[in-house]
Amino acid sequence: MRIEGMGRVVAALVVVAALGGCTVQGAQDDGKNRSPVRIELPDSTSPAPRTTPASPTPSTSLLSTVLWSPGDTGRDIRELQARLRQVAWIFEGPTGTYDDATEEAVKGFQGKRGLPRTGETDAVTWQRLKKMTHEPGKWELYLMGGQPADAPDARCRTGRVLCISKSSRTLRWMVDGRTLKTLPVRFGSDYTPTREGVFHVYWKSRDHYSTLYDSPMPYAMFFSGGQAVHYSTDFAARGYAGASHGCVNVRDQAAIAELFDEVRDGDKVVVHW
Question: Which of 49, 163, 195, 198 is deepest in the core (most CB within 10 A)?
Answer without folding.
Answer: 163
